Amino acid sequence: MEPLRPVVLERLIRYHRYLSELTARSSLHAITSAQLGAALDIDPTQVRKDFGAMGLTGISRVGYEVCEVCRAIRVVFAFDHPHSAILVGTGRLGSALLHCPVFARFGLRIVAAFDNDPARIGTEIAGFQVRSARTMRAFVQKHHIPLAILTIPEAASQRVTDRLVAAGVKVIWSFAPTRLTAPGGVLIRHEHFSLSLAHIAYHLNPYPASTT
Length: 212
Description:
Layout: H1 6-25, E1 30-31, H2 33-40, H3 44-53, E2 64-65, H4 66-77, E3 83-88, H5 92-99, E4 108-115, E5 124-125, E6 128-129, E7 131-132, H6 136-143, E8 147-150, H7 154-167, E9 171-174, E10 187-190, H8 193-204
Parallel strand pairs: 3-4, 3-8, 4-7, 8-9, 9-10
Antiparallel strand pairs: 1-2, 5-6
């Protein structure tokens, strides 16, 4: 299967979430592209194209087997093949992520947490004993960790990113309020709260600026 574009991957996640929630509430066995498209406001033709990209073909007048669709999407994202991750920064956001039970459903398993604050090192959060950031590189190399989650201040984020890349990390999921850079072959996923808040503020604005 050829690599899928980000916009397709986003739709696949929407399909998976909707179908998972739907089957949890009912005994639905099949769904048509028209039904799924109507529920998610996606053109049915696009739904069929997305499913075709995964090698799925529907049955005339029946549609697609829901379990088969969910299975195919899980294969695309390798949800059933967990990847180990470390979390760097155990402040309020980092602690909240360590307590989050959702990651396992998406094949992500946090195995260690790091911090450089002496007051946090050695403490326990959600069953994790916080380790010193000084031991981070050795841990990543020893356990071949492919993913790091950053919830650290802006000032330290690029420096920590460089250390992680040097240690062999291939994906960085950053919540730091800045744009990070890394060599080719390393994926950085930025989560910008400021951008999300800006979108929210815009939609709440009763006097939007004229576009003319």
